[in-house]
Fold each of these.
Amino acid sequence: MNNFNFVSGVLGALLMVNAQAQNFPAEQIKLGAETYARHCSPCHGARMKNPEGAFDLPTFPKDQKSRFLNSVGKGKNSMPPWEGLLKPEEIEALWAYVYTGDNN
Ligand code: HEC
């Protein structure tokens, strides 16, 4: 286990302790869906279907928000970093979209 995994494990555990029912405002999910369609769908598939080589986002663990923010912000392997390109509230909205799935 490297340090990064250790730190995100601890963060994840803390987040779980604090976990509350996640209720996202409809307009936040909508912003997330729009941001997703523009920037993420080329690799992760339209409406998170058919991710091909990229991560299958509907299976992303819901208790690992810190991992999501980190991977999206800093990038991961062949995924580019989005920090700087996207506003923090857009990345938060992407989490709301991924968390709730594309049921809206
Ligand atoms: C250029 C193609 C590409 C684009 C565009 C892209 N991704 Fe990815 N994404 C990938 C690939 C490839 C992986 C798998 C990385 C790995 O684990 O090696 C990935 C992995 C992920 C993961 C999982 C990271 C983890 O911790 O395992 C998340 C979450 C994610 N992407 C979200 C997004 C979001 C949100 C966007 C839009 C802002 C986006 N991606 C845009 C290619 C892309």
Note: The pocket of heme C is lined by residues 39-40, 42-44, 53-55, 60, 67-68, 71-72, 76-80, 82, 94 (CB under 6 Å).
Amino acid sequence: MSTPKLPAMALALGLGSGAALAAGPNLGIPLEPADIAAWDISIQPDGTGLPIGGGTPAQGARIFAQKCALCHGENGKGGVFAALVGGAPLSGGIDTPKTIANFWGYPTTVFDFIRRAMPWQQPRSLTDNEVYALTAFILAQNKLIGEDDSMNAETLPKVRMPNRDGFIIRFPDKI
Ligand code: HEC
């Protein structure tokens, strides 16, 4: 049905995109490095990107009770949403719920995820110190660090997650 129209359409598209590329769509504004920095918040497994600051499990416990327990249950045991503590061994099969303790490969992901996504209704509202404290609290609740261990850019990447070696690295030469 539309076959006869195709050559004309291809020609039109070809000409159109060539012109558009040359001139540019003239949309948007130039970004300053500071604008980009506000969004460039990824943390690498080795700790690259972690900000200055720090926090302890005890500090995190207070923040958790105020801002997180509502959804994740008292002390992260699970509530309306995911449990952040515990989890059955993954050897139970593919349907075993994956948790921080039984699945996540790197402690830095806990920091990264909380900072960019939580609390659910107000992402990016926590200070870096609060995120460190909450990360410390969750790791301590999972018995992955001690009750008094402070988490910061030095200590956090050194925490070894139980499932650290449970992943098949797709591009081993890239790490
Ligand atoms: C309004 C509800 C709500 C609040 C409050 C909330 N969360 Fe969440 N959280 C969620 C939802 C929804 C998910 C995604 C659940 C899922 O993946 O099953 C989630 C996921 C998470 C995860 C990833 C869990 C996993 O194993 O995938 C972490 C870590 C987390 N939240 C931490 C926090 C922290 C810390 C706070 C407090 C600062 C917080 N959340 C407050 C709703 C909430």
Note: Residues 67-68, 70-72, 81-82, 84, 99-100, 110, 113-114, 118-121, 134 surround heme C (CB under 6 Å).
Amino acid sequence: MNAQVEKSSIVTSVTLISALALLATVAFFVAALIGIITAIPSDDGSRKQAAVIDRIKPVARIVLTDPNAAPPVAAVLTGPEVYNKVCMACHATGASGAPKVGAKDLWEPRFAQGLDTLVNHAVNGIRAMPAKGGNPALTETNIRDAIVYMLAETGIKTDAAAPAPAAEAAPK
Ligand code: HEC
């Protein structure tokens, strides 16, 4: 009888220890799992965004270029061509107060400012005169050539037929 009581208490102890061990094991794994889960950074959408950018990359490649970089075709236009294409619209008729080509009395006081000033005003715009006559593809040389042509047509001689005064820029 005594031995049986002892045996049953041993069984109880073993069962209890096993249960505790099992509980500890479960607790350990739960803790480990929580550790793993919290170690993974949450996705704020950037991973998805990166994947999207990667997917569209070969299709959409945008290259921004300087809009002031004139297309080569503009550089080969002559003064008369620039005038006929762009400037004539206003300067042939005197529209919106533009000095009309041929009106020497209108051009002479303007030319008195100097050709460089006229070029500067035509490139950057002045009052009702839009910058580059409204065509940003034109180069400063295009504008200068057109002005020289307009002045020549008006009967005002410029010495700009000679190449640009590079000598002026040379160190003294
Ligand atoms: C939309 C009409 C218009 C076009 C196009 C136009 N002009 Fe003019 N331009 C004007 C007007 C208006 C003035 C007078 C501005 C003022 O002095 O109030 C003027 C003035 C000028 C002057 C005199 C500036 C000064 O300092 O007195 C020059 C030079 C000139 N234009 C060059 C050109 C050239 C070169 C082109 C073509 C590339 C051109 N313009 C195209 C309207 C135009």
Note: The CA atoms of residues 141 and 163 lie 11 Å apart.
